[in-house]
Amino acid sequence: TQPWDALTIDGPFDLPEAVVSIAIEGVESIHSTKGIHYPLNVDEVEETTWQAVSRRLEERDNNNTLVRICVGDGLDALGQSALGELKPSTIDESSLKKLDLKNDEDRKFLEELQLLRAIAQKIPTTITANSKSDVYWFVVSGLRPVLDLHGKDSEASQEALRLLNAALDNVVKAFNNVYDGKVVVAVYTNDANKIRNTRSIESGRVERQADAGKPEAEVIE
């Protein structure tokens, strides 16, 4: 990670048209090699942030596209999502090395990844750039149970991280293609349990003592 040195707008007449936020719940890092990484002081759950962002945009213009999808809800719960009908592919069990569909934690996590891939496939036919400010918000919650089951340094967990980063790459590429690169993608980790535990002891803003223990925000332009 590197220190956050404020936001600078280089081209005020060529601003991004969309923001894509992807929250990875329950972990401190997904060990991605893409983008720029910053330590993140987390003092609220991601849904609170989403509500604040979406409300602010709705106050300015009611023609914005605002989409929030929790892939952990599963296909049955999502039904007709805000992006239309999602059709995830069947998981190819033969491609797995350490993860096992017989484990509920592994299976649910892999189903989330299939939904992310289905979203990436749906984006080109569903979304049209129209110069409005759009926000797409995705939540992945199945990684932490896999790390808890196998151990965060296990080969199974490493495989899970590799597959997650590959699925995220698919989503990033799809949005970049639709918006012709005029999109900011932020992938961040958010451990809600630590937020609740800290708030129960000390009210006010959470300040971490060292970057090593902080969640991360990864910005991909």
From TrEMBL:
<dbReference type="GO" id="GO:0038023">
    <property type="term" value="F:signaling receptor activity"/>
</dbReference>
<dbReference type="GO" id="GO:0030177">
    <property type="term" value="P:positive regulation of Wnt signaling pathway"/>
</dbReference>
<feature type="domain" description="Renin receptor N-terminal">
    <location>
        <begin position="3"/>
        <end position="191"/>
    </location>
</feature>
<dbReference type="Pfam" id="PF25294">
    <property type="entry name" value="RENR_N"/>
</dbReference>
<dbReference type="InterPro" id="IPR057318">
    <property type="entry name" value="RENR_N"/>
</dbReference>
<dbReference type="InterPro" id="IPR012493">
    <property type="entry name" value="Renin_rcpt"/>
</dbReference>
<protein>
    <recommendedName>
        <fullName>Renin receptor N-terminal domain-containing protein</fullName>
    </recommendedName>
</protein>
<dbReference type="GO" id="GO:0009897">
    <property type="term" value="C:external side of plasma membrane"/>
</dbReference>
